Sequence to fold (228 residues):
Amino acid sequence: EVQLVDSGGDLVQPGGSLRLSCAASGFIFRSYWMSWVRQVPGKGPEWVANINQDGSERHYLDSVAGRFTISRDNADNSMFLQMNSLRVEDTAVYYCARGGPWGTYPTVHWGQGTVVTVSS
Amino acid sequence: EVVMTQSPATLPVSPGERATLSCRASQSVSTNLAWYQQKPGQPPRLLIYGASTRAANTPGRFSGSGSGTEFTLTISSLQSEDFAIYYCQQYNKWPPYTFGQGTKLEMK
Fold:
């Protein structure tokens, strides 16, 4: 069974930093694209970033590019999102998500989410 | 960026009735279109991909159709567990992958 356990969400002040983690199990992690997707309560999901199997290709939502960094550790079946210069508008539930063997693929599996609150 | 527009925002329906949800893309996404179901406190769950292919464990009463810019999700006979919010997502022209704003199925 595919499991994605996301963690690391917290309350942080504007301008602060946070590192989210995702622990994956139940599938061959190194074979899949992985993503972070966020959702403000009452709104639709918003894709944030994704990374290919070996980490050589990474893509970001324009509003987070230059502030967020996605990475993965295939030896440890883990993915990360380093979030710097956080803004109030980054407040959301952040989901770790698994795509497919290529980028043009739906978001097949989702973690339970971790809450990031940016507020003074 | 491909903008996804869903209608209606809210759809009042009774159990046993048929529900039809619409999703429109601002430009062609071919059939690279997915539908998700989300219940309160849970992450979205993939229902349909490739515009019309049911994901694993998606009941047969759910069907998807369309291509290009116009898509439909149909639930043939609503069960109580189907009352939720439904989102469409395009994964054809990315980044970014984009989602619609959702259609909430509520009990009439």
Remarks:
- The interface with chain A takes residues 32, 34, 36, 42-46, 49, 55, 87, 89, 91-92, 94-102 of chain B (CB under 8 Å).
